[in-house]
Write a structure and sequence with these properties.
This protein has helices spanning 3-21, 28-50, 57-60, 67-95, 110-115, 121-132, 134-140, 152-171, 176-193, 195-208, 221-225, 248-256, 263-284, 288-296, 299-309, 326-337, and strands at 232-236, 239-243. The protein is mainly alpha-helical. The protein has a domain at 3-52 and 194-337. The chain is globular. The termini are far apart. The relative contact order is 0.16.
């Protein structure tokens, strides 16, 4: 048994134990879904944590003679830091929550300025994606919600470009590590920007909210659908949890089967699944054997696990079409998800 298989086996036992302890309904398929989700999230966190930060913006840009590229990367970094700071302030203000992961080095201090931003190859990929995919920037700054700023034809082109960008990255993976990194990168991007899940929800709205359909979603469907992409806040005794909507594959499956008749039930089921995964993951994260096995697993094992148990790349299989006001529904969904923030003043 490989290291990752052993970790998965231990996590599965914890999932089963939690379900029995809480007298929850035991569904064999759901046990596997919870297990695979938790293992993938831990793998992602360990992979990003272990990615050596040994590259400066100067080095990423190709050193001397590439000043234009360096300035471009610096603007992207400032842009990203601005919205990270906004998120940190919102979480602290609304939930009294702080995280070292959201801290930004103070570049007014000489020591930080001398060292510069230290990046891993994974960080560099995120910067390059922000520069190559205008869709991501238009989501972050909320321009996507305004048809006058992003016309329908431009929205369609940006979605097509997003899909092509990631399909090409997977196609060009030269080894197992590149495949794992690309899978984690796609997961993180979807987690942050909800590109494909918003499209899939818009697809459902387009199918039902039209003159030909007798069965329609209720007028407050945006409120109900926010649960699939917004941050979930819940309490368990003295513990407060803030959880991103990370059950991406399960969420996509639920959205594919969504109808006006089952929206409320689907929403409740999804939130329940998300809470359960969050609690079990917190337990498992303290089990040293699980963390050691994941950390010591080979690139080949990791690729096998993703292909067999968490094929995140399948979210790119959606056929992108734009009939029946689909663009309008994409805008409406993002307007309900993204709060209004003054854009950064970066030239």
């Amino acid at each position: 048994m490989g290291k990752l298989d052993e970790a998965r086996s231990i996590v599965k036992r914890y999932v089963l134990f939690f379900l029995i302890q809480n007298r929850a309904y035991i569904n064999i398929r759901k046990i596997d879904l919870y297990t695979n989700q938790i293992v993938f999230e831990l793998l992602k966190e360990i992979y990003v944590e272990d990615s050596e930060k040994k590259m400066s913006l100067y080095e990423m840009s190709g050193r001397e003679g590439n000043e234009d590229k360096q300035r471009k990367h610096a603007r992207t970094m400032h842009y990203s830091n601005y919205y990270r700071q906004q998120l940190a302030e919102k979480l602290e203000e609304n939930y009294n929550f702080t995280s070292p992961k959201l801290e930004i080095p103070d570049m007014s201090e000489w020591d930080n300025r001398r060292i510069g931003y230290q990046l891993s190859s994974y960080d560099a990929e995120q910067i390059e994606a922000m520069e190559n995919l205008t869709l991501l920037k238009n989501i972050a700054n909320r321009r996507i919600t305004d048809v006058n700023k992003i016309p329908n034809i431009e929205l369609k082109d940006e979605y097509d470009k997003f899909e092509r960008y990631f399909k090409k990255k997977f196609y060009n993976c030269k080894d197992d590590d590149a495949f794992v990194r690309c899978s984690i990168f796609l997961f993180t991007t979807e987690l942050k920007y909800h590109v494909m899940s918003v499209y899939m929800l818009a697809n459902k709205l387009s199918a039902y909210q039209n003159n030909r359909s007798k069965n329609k979603f209720s007028d407050d469907y945006l409120t109900d659908m926010c649960c699939f992409n917004g941050v979930i806040n819940f309490h368990d005794g003295k513990t407060q949890y803030l959880k991103e909507n990370s059950l991406i594959l399960l969420k996509m499956e639920i959205i594919r089967n969504l109808t006006p008749d089952n929206l409320t039930e689907s929403k409740e089921t999804y939130i329940s699944d998300l809470i359960l995964c969050t609690k079990v993951k917190q337990m498992v994260a303290g089990v040293s054997k699980v963390i050691e096995n994941i950390r010591e697993s080979t690139d080949e094992e990791r690729r096998y696990f993703i292909e067999d148990y968490y094929p995140i790349y399948t979210i790119l299989d959606a056929k992108l079409t734009w009939e029946h006001k689909k663009g309008k529904y994409v805008r409406d969904l993002y307007a309900s998800l993204i709060r209004k923030i003054e854009p950064p003043k970066i030239r």
